[in-house]
Amino acid sequence: MALQALYAVRQGKCSLREALKFVAAETNTPPLAGAMAYCRRLAKKTIEEQEWADETISNKLENWELGRVTFIDLLILELALVEMVNFKDIPSKVSISEAIEIAKIYSTDESPGFINGILDAVYHELLDKKVISA
Question: Which of 65, 83, 110, 111 has a CA 20 to 30 Å removed from the CA of 101?
Answer without folding.
Answer: 65
